[in-house]
Design a protein that fits this description.
The radius of gyration is 20 Å and the shape is elongated. It folds into two domains: 161 residues, NAD(P)-binding Rossmann-like Domain (Rossmann fold), CATH 3.40.50; 125 residues, N-(1-d-carboxylethyl)-l-norvaline Dehydrogenase, domain 2. It is of the alpha/beta class. It starts with a strand and ends with a helix. Helix 1 runs parallel beside helix 7, helix 9 crosses helix 13 and helix 9 packs across helix 14. The strands form two sheets. Strands 3-2-1-4-5-6 form a six-stranded parallel beta sheet, with helices on both faces. Strands 7-8-9 form a three-stranded mixed beta sheet. Bound molecules: nicotinamide-adenine-dinucleotide (NAD). The site of nicotinamide-adenine-dinucleotide has 26 residues, from helix 4, helix 7 and helix 12.
Length: 297
């Protein structure tokens, strides 16, 4: 069993750290935020007063932070992970961030002799609590081999995507598809309403036809056809519109940098930005159907 320093004990990080502890590892967490510290204390997690307190002496450092600047600061800042980590400590960043930052931090870690992987997740807070996350992992084969047993304590599907940064690339490409597909399902459901076709009938037909996709069959944006979705509980998240917008912006940044054409992604980003501006960022991302329904044709 390993000594693990866990940075970022928010909605995702705390259940992930708790699962590592349940698997028998000695986990010390750090988060500067009061609500996260309180929740971690209530969950019985050992807490450090600062980042160094979690990282010094850890064989593995895992981070689950909001965005790229937090990751860069936590690893490369003057009092960061790369200053305090033991030689040979394995570094795993599970945050969703831009590919460039992931690659830059991995290069800095490698220069100090650390194996590091970017390992963003799919599965949300439910998957984090149930240890059923999907991890998309970028890094060397050796680093992936070292990280896999720890990721297995927090998830069910662990995929090596390729070199450093490709875990993040997989995550933003996946969520680019998801954002576009959700809007397509919402548009079809609203058109069905106007044509006098019941949601359930469209669901029954399209879930067995060529319109089938996860946004329809697992995350249907109208109440009824899939009783567990946020649509059945007033669009309480789930996965917030703000998070979807964040990931679409990451995809748009990557597309601009590489010259990839993403016209549908650009349209989806604009729609989610408008939806978030209307103070809906805390709603589930499938709630965008309300805006689409309310938009004159
Ligand atoms: P969150 O805001 O609940 O938690 C992030 C935590 O990081 C906060 O508590 C914050 O105080 C802490 N933090 C910031 N800087 C820190 C530092 N230097 N050291 C230690 N802690 C620090 O966010 P979340 O929902 O847990 O998401 C975390 C990451 O996971 C994000 O990158 C997000 O895009 C990604 N993600 C989230 C979901 C989801 O459904 N919530 C799903 C997939 C991926």
């Amino acid at each position: 069993m390993a000594r693990i320093g866990f940075l970022g004990l928010g909605n995702m990080g705390l259940p992930m750290a708790s699962n590592l502890r349940r698997a028998g590892h000695a986990v010390t967490g750090f988060d500067p935020g009061d609500p996260a510290r309180r929740a971690a204390g209530e969950a019985g997690l050992r807490l450090a007063d600062d980042l160094a307190g979690a990282v010094v002496g850890a064989e593995v450092v895992i981070s689950m932070l909001p965005a790229g600047p937090h990751v860069r600061d936590a690893y490369e800042g003057p009092a960061g992970v790369l200053t305090h980590a033991m030689p040979q400590a394995l570094l795993i960043d599970c945050s969703t961030i831009d590919v460039e930052t992931a690659r830059a931090v991995a290069r800095a870690a490698a220069a100090r002799g650390h194996d590091m992987v970017d390992a963003p997740v799919s599965g949300g807070v439910t998957g984090a609590a149930a240890a059923s996350l999907t991890f998309m992992v970028g890094g060397t084969v050796e680093a992936f081999g070292r990280a896999a047993p720890f990721l297995e304590a927090m998830g069910q599907t662990i995929v090596h995507a390729g070199d450093a940064g490709t875990g993040q690339a997989a995550k933003i490409c996946n969520n680019l598809m998801l954002g576009i597909q959700m809007i397509s399902v919402c548009e079809a459901m609203v058109l069905a309403e106007k044509l006098g076709l019941a949601h359930q009938k469209l669901f029954d037909i399209s879930s067995r036809s060529s319109g089938q996709c996860w946004s329809l069959t697992s995350y249907c944006p109208v109440p009824g056809p899939v009783p567990t979705t946020p649509a059945n509980r007033d669009y309480r998240p789930g996965f917030t519109a703000a998070m979807m917008l964040k990931d679409l912006k990451l995809a748009m940044g990557a597309a601009e940098m590489t010259g990839a054409a993403t016209p549908m992604g650009a349209a989806a980003t604009q729609l989610y930005a408008k939806f978030a501006r209307e103070e809906n960022e805390g709603l589930d991302f499938s709630a965008i159907i309300k805006m689409i329904r309310g938009t004159p044709g």
